[in-house]
Hints:
Blueprint: E1 4-6, E2 13-15, E3 17-20, H1 31-43, E4 48-50, H2 59-68, E5 77-82, H3 98-112, E6 117-122, H4 131-143, E7 147-152, H5 157-170, E8 174-177, H6 192-199, E9 202-205, H7 236-240, H8 246-253, H9 256-262, H10 266-275, E10 280-285, H11 290-297, H12 306-316, H13 325-329
Parallel strand pairs: 3-4, 3-10, 4-5, 5-6, 6-7, 7-8, 8-9, 9-10
Antiparallel strand pairs: 1-2
Amino acid sequence: MVDYVFLGDSGLKVSNLIFGNWLTHGSQVEEEAATASVHAALDAGITTFDTADVYANGVAEEVLGRALAGVDRGDLEILTKVYWPTGKKRHNDSGLSRKHIMQSIDRSLKRLGTDYVDVYQAHRYDVETPIEETMQAFADVVRAGKALYIGVSEWTAEQIKYAHDFSKELGFQVVSNQPQYNMLYRVIEPEVVPMSERCGLSQIVFSPMAQGVLSDKYEIGKPLPAGSRATDEKGGARTIQRYLSDEILQAVADLKPIADELGITRAQLALAWVLQNDNVAAAIIGASRPEQVNENVKAADVVIPAELMARIDDVLFDVIIDDPSLTWENAPHERPEIRLG
């Protein structure tokens, strides 16, 4: 059963499973199926929905807005993001400048069909805009009532400290970080999680199932399943590639006895694992069919005993990625390329 947890040191509660529409709504999945999945999430008790202006260049926000139309806004928590190039992708259509933030929040609200978002997230750190400018713009967005809280995504520990310190000076709260985190990819554990705890942020994690690799979908020596993320040429195949080595697939296969012992699937084991880790408030799940939502929700009730958590670490020991420098190395070191003029 879905639970509701405080986000960071704030008074805002979110569902511990969050429905996200990256790589699905507006691109991979027809709108009718997307809407059915959103309604399945609502029926399962999920109240928190995560999207971004860059997903399908705004179309994902539009699809989510239409899917949620008619639902009491006070019963929902809607999260979106700003940073990557959107719209016409001209010289001011990316980054965290005041201009881009102020334009983007209004465009996102219009697409979502709402007066405010609960958490407005910096989708990456902008190395080309002074942090003071970015945080002042976020403060003004909050004061205007267009966002209740601010979050970040894939920021380093040092950058999170910047966000915390400036937000305190300016009188608003940064409540969350949205990193990639799963059994295989644990780069936030050494530095980002301790800093987040000190600064009062929670993790809202994406890719808790490593793009589906931590399920039983991919097997050594077998063709990639038709219609899976690994065969999606619109972005899914690129994002999943790092996890498709024989070594990783064998380690994932070796998790099956642990999942069987708990009476759950490997996908549910992966979700339960992230929810059980310190500083994780919620895990983002995606779905192209309502049945996937219903299966994922079962993980919210699972408690993995300490001895099985240790066994998971033993099974995956050789394939765990936990270098904290990867958060910085994988981040953009300049704004993405855009059209000139």
